[in-house]
């Protein structure tokens, strides 16, 4: 589904990704872990098409197409979804209105029938249950005044609505208490299927107790320096990141 | 007739000629008109270096683009249908090139409210009109108010009687037919809202034709105890209109005033809006929204004058500026020494859509009382790129994302419109402008 080859990216003069290689197949969950500043969020942002970053080398293919050539909205319509680490607050735009516009643009791009108000609301009510989100929240301005947990649940709600092929969760666990974390993880798990894939970007192993990965990759200084199975995450949790740094230094 | 030698420039001379053409009109108020003329002879049109006009070269642009010579325009007939707004059931007063058009107007037969031309009110000796006219707009304010006082030809007089909840808004159309030649109109309005009465007024400026035109409007309003006035102004003239609009509203105890100023088009729009809060328990809201493009200049100078304790004022003006447009906001708040327990808030927020659009914004608070709550804030910036990326990341194209953001920005003002029909009408204009 996703094939990243020697991806390099910079922001300003600063090179952040130094040649990432990663293959993600349908049905898989990959965790990207690493210390602060290792480039985890940059990787997520570059895949979603954030313009602040300049891709200086490498290729990314998504379902056989060159992902890097696409505008952010085209990537979303192809089925890439980024759950933001810091969801943006947008006063005056309600989540419902925003989601209706987004979903219909996505459906239209995919050549599918767009939804009228009634079927949209029906779908929305169904998806709200997944993340235990209240409609009064969705009537409000997008993320404005939401708690950290509400923002993250709103991200997963949007993911449920858009049914992406590839979901990238950028530090979705940061700032969540354990109850909120369980709700979010539960939502993600319910959305998993053999036809979609998930990349979980996280600093801590905690989230991976609930969203169990097939593969764990350790990112350090803009490169994947170690890959393994879920046991690698436990080892990182127990030993910290220093041993990886030492290993790389040797 | 002295003082002509003091005039400073060509346009002053032209204005004096225009004023002198109207000598003898409305003889009951000759003394007031003479006061206006004297003030104009003394001050002339505002110089570009004057503090109140330094960002808006109105006199220079008038000199450059208009002759200010009297013209006798032949008017093509208009149909009342042209001014119909769906969802707005209103009394209507139409002025074409400053001249009242009875065939396009529909005045109330109601006993709650008097709506007639100010010329009729003054010439018939309406005691209330004569009592209030000229009491609030000081001809010394600037050359335009002086000119208007000296030479207004017509306008509207509205009198909402004691305890009357006026059943429909009064819809004022200021139409310029500039098909053949330049138009100059000098319009004067007087609104009197008596004790416990409630009145809604909607003013709309528009034109046809390509010639340059200028309107000099002065509106005086007085809202007596516990009265209410909602004043909506829509400036969306896609012709070559230059305009000066001075509005001064005098509020008595416990009165409520909401003003809504929408400036969407025109060559140059200068609004001076002044509220005098002369009593306790007053509530005043001033809402403004300007969506500017091309080379439009829109200047809003506002004054809120808290003269007595325990009153509340809130002002929020927002602007979206594209192309080479220019916005000016100047908000003065005065809190007099006796006006303790005043609450006064002011905000001006702008979004610049192009590198060549500019905004000059200046809050000016002068507070002499010590137990007050006052705040002001102004921001000018671009659309939030992170927010646009967020919308894009959900599949929304960039243009739609920008339009959504801009509409959301305007919504804060739009949401305050109380009249459903007007809200619908103005929202549609905004949506069209923002391609939403």
Determine the number of helices of chain B (DSSP H or I, runs of at least 4 residues): 9
The ordered string of helix (H) and strand (E) elements of chain A is EEEHEEHEEHHHEHEHEEEHH
Q: How many strand units of chain B?
A: 19
Radius of gyration of chain B: 21 Å
As a percent range, the share of strand residues of chain A is 25-35%
Biggest sheet layout of chain A: 6 strands, mixed
How do the strands of the widest beta sheet of chain A line up side by side? Answer: 6-9-10-3-11-12
Mean pLDDT value of chain A? 93
Structural class of chain A: alpha/beta
**Looking at the structure, what is the overall shape of chain A?**
globular
Question: If you had to describe this structure to a student in words, what would you say it looks like?
Answer:
The complex is a heterodimer of chains A (250) and B (436). Chain A is α/β, with parallel strands linked by helices. Helix content of chain A is 39%, strand content 28%. The radius of gyration of chain A is 18 Å and the shape is globular. The relative contact order of chain A is 0.18. Chain B is of the alpha/beta class and 436 residues long. Chain B is built from nine helices and 19 strands. In chain B, strands 2-1-5-7-9-11-13-15-17-19 form a ten-stranded mixed sheet, with helices on one face. A nine-stranded mixed sheet of chain B has the order 3-4-6-8-10-12-14-16-18. In chain B, helix 2 (30-43) runs antiparallel to helix 6 (143-151) and helix 7 crosses helix 8 (398-414). The longest helix of chain B has 17 residues, at 398-414. Chain A binds chain B through residues 48-51, 71-73, 75-77, 81-82, 84, 87-88, 90-93, 98-99, 101-103, 105-106, 109, 141, 158, 162, and chain B through 384-387, 389-398, 400-401, 404-405, 407-409, 411-412.
């Amino acid at each position: 589904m996703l094939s990243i080859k020697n991806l390099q990216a910079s922001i300003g003069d600063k090179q952040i990704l130094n040649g990432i290689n990663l293959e993600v197949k349908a049905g898989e969950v990959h965790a990207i872990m690493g210390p602060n500043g290792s480039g985890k969020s940059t990787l997520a942002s570059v895949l979603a098409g954030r313009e602040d970053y300049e891709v200086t080398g490498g290729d990314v293919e998504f379902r056989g197409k060159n992902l890097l050539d696409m505008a952010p909205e085209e990537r979303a319509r192809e089925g890439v979804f980024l759950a933001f680490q810091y969801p943006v607050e947008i006063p005056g735009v309600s989540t419902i209105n925003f989601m209706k516009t987004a979903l219909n643009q996505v459906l239209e791009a995919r050549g599918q029938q767009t939804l009228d108000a009634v079927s949209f609301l029906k779908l929305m009510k169904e998806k709200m249950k997944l993340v235990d989100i209240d409609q009064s929240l969705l009537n409000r301005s997008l993320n404005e005044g939401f708690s950290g947990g509400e923002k993250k649940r709103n991200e997963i709600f949007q993911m449920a609505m858009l049914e992406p092929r590839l979901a990238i969760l950028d530090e979705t666990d940061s700032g969540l208490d354990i109850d909120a974390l369980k709700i979010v993880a539960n939502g993600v798990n319910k959305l998993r299927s053999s036809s979609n894939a998930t990349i979980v970007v996280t600093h801590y192993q905690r989230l991976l107790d609930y969203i169990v990965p097939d593969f764990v990759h350790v990112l350090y200084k803009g490169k994947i320096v170690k890959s393994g199975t879920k046991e690698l995450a436990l080892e990182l949790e127990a030993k910290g990141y220093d041993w990886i740094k030492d290993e790389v230094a040797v | 007739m002295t003082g002509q030698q003091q005039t400073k420039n060509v346009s002053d001379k032209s204005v004096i000629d225009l004023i002198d053409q109207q000598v003898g009109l409305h003889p009951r108020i000759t003394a007031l008109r003479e006061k206006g003329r004297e003030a104009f002879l003394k001050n002339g049109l505002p110089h570009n270096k004057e503090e109140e006009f330094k960002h808006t070269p109105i006199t220079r642009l008038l000199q450059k683009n208009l002759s200010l010579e009297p013209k006798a325009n032949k008017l093509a007939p208009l149909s009342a249908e042209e001014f119909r707004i769906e969802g707005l059931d209103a009394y209507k007063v139409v002025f074409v090139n400053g001249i009242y058009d009875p065939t396009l107007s529909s005045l109330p037969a109601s006993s709650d409210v008097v709506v007639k031309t100010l010329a009729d009110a003054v010439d018939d000796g309406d005691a209330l009109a004569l009592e209030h006219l000229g009491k609030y707009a000081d001809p010394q304010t600037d050359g335009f108010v002086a000119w208007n006082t000296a030479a207004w030809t017509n306008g509207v007089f509205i009198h909402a009687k004691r305890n009357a909840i006026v059943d429909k808004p009064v819809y004022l159309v200021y139409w310029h037919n500039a098909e053949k030649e330049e138009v100059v109109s000098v319009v004067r309005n007087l609104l009197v809202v008596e004790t416990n009465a409630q009145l809604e007024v909607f003013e709309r400026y528009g034109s046809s034709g390509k010639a340059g035109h200028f309107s000099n409007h002065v509106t005086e309003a007085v809202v007596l105890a516990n009265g209410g006035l909602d004043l909506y102004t829509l400036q969306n003239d896609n012709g070559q209109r230059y305009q000066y609009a001075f509005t001064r509203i005098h509020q008595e105890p416990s009165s409520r005033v909401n003003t809504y100023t929408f400036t969407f088009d025109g060559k140059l729009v200068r609004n001076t809006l002044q509220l005098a809060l002369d009593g306790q328990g007053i509530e005043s809201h001033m809402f403004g929204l300007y969506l500017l493009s091309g080379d439009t200049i829109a200047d809003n100078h506002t004054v809120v004058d808290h003269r007595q304790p325990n009153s509340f004022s809130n002002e929020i003006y927002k602007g979206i500026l594209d192309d080479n447009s220019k916005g000016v906001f100047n908000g003065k708040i005065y809190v007099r020494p006796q006006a303790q327990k005043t609450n006064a808030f002011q905000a001006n927020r702008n979004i610049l859509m192009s590198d060549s659009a500019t905004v000059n914004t200046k809050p000016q608070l002068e507070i002499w009382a010590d137990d007050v709550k006052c705040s002001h804030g102004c921001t000018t910036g671009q659309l939030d790129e992170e927010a646009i990326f967020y919308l894009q990341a959900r599949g929304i194209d960039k243009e739609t994302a920008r339009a959504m953001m801009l509409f959301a920005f305007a919504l804060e003002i739009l949401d305050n419109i109380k009249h459903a029909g007007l809200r619908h009408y103005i929202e549609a204009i905004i949506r069209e402008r923002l391609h939403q």
